Amino acid sequence: MTREQTAPMVSIIIPCFNQGKYLRESIGSALAQSYPNVEVVLVNDGSTDNSAEVAGDYPTIVYLSQPNRGVAEARNLGFGASKGEFVQFLDADDRVTRTSVETHLRCFDAHPEAGFVVGEIEWIDEINQCTGRGGWPLLQVNHYEEILKVNHVANTVAVMFRRAVLETVGGFNGFFSPAEDYEMLVRSARRFSSAHHAEVVAQYRRHTTNTSRRGRLMLRATNRVMVAERFYVKGSARLEAALRKGHHNWRDFFGAVTIKEISAHLRRGDITNAITSTAALMWYVRERVFIIPWKFRRRGMVAARRRLRRLAKSLRSRLGVNSRAVRPSQVSPPRR
């Protein structure tokens, strides 16, 4: 028997709504896997652009379409039509690396108790330039508790599930959209262990239409996830503390995103959306709205110092200057 005949099948499921611009790259990356037994399932979620035409150029994929019902329902439809023993979800504007499937399966081999495995991602921009990588810590214990505190999974595209896990916990729940992927991870981690590795398995594309940039929606969605988990952590002081910390982290992070969103609305003269976003900010973030500017200003200063260190190192390299001649601490920060 050939390697392809003996290797377990892996399904890569791609939901797509008006991402024809990037869809060819997404499908191509899934079909180009170094692992031999991969099926690609594409779900057209009511796209009005050229997504259907792009999909038509790939006769070997499984193609499904539905009226626009959202990414949660599109993923569920794709999963129902898939056959793989292992399942990976890939958004239509992202890409998987050539060894993504093979790398994940090696992690499963090393951790047969794991229900799902998590890898690393790179960030890319609209023209495929790499802009960094996640750098998340590798969880080894207390996975559910740690994912409650902070989402240590960069994105769903970095995860591979055993089919049995998804069949046990159920599909994606659109009630939590656009945080339905995080809710799925929390639900899975609550019932199954996971394994984490540092290999880059996907490239997550950052652009102006990313849902994560919509602070108002993300505040509501993450709040729903945190409220839903109260039932499951009740009675455990450790898990209750983890949930509180996670709730604060989401409120702070997407509170800051919402503040930027309000500023953008005001610059465009969109008073209605500015008021709506402000109301969401006050409802979900509440008193922590006074903490956010200072918290993220400190993070910004840390990031600026790191940038200055890299700049100083680059200058030393170009000029051939001894490392003791110019130290990062001697470089003055930019004036405000």
If you had to describe this structure to a student in words, what would you say it looks like?
There is one protein chain. The chain is an alpha/beta fold and 336 residues long. It has helices at residues 3-6, 20-31, 51-55, 71-81, 100-110, 143-149, 163-169, 180-191, 215-233, 237-268, 271-284, 292-319; strands at residues 10-16, 38-45, 62-66, 86-89, 95-96, 116-124, 130-133, 159-162, 194-205. Strands 1, 2, 3, 4, 5, 6, 7, 8 and 9 form a nine-stranded mixed beta sheet that branches. α2 links the parallel β1 and β2 (38-45). It is globular, with a radius of gyration of 22 Å. Mean pLDDT is 87; it is low at 323-336.
SSE layout and pairing:
Elements (H helix, E strand, L loop, with lengths): L2 H4 L3 E7 L3 H12 L6 E8 L5 H5 L6 E5 L4 H11 L4 E4 L5 E2 L3 H11 L5 E9 L5 E4 L9 H7 L9 E4 H7 L10 H12 L2 E12 L9 H19 L3 H32 L2 H14 L7 H28 L17
Parallel strand pairs: 1-2, 1-4, 2-3, 6-9
Antiparallel strand pairs: 4-8, 5-9, 6-7, 6-8
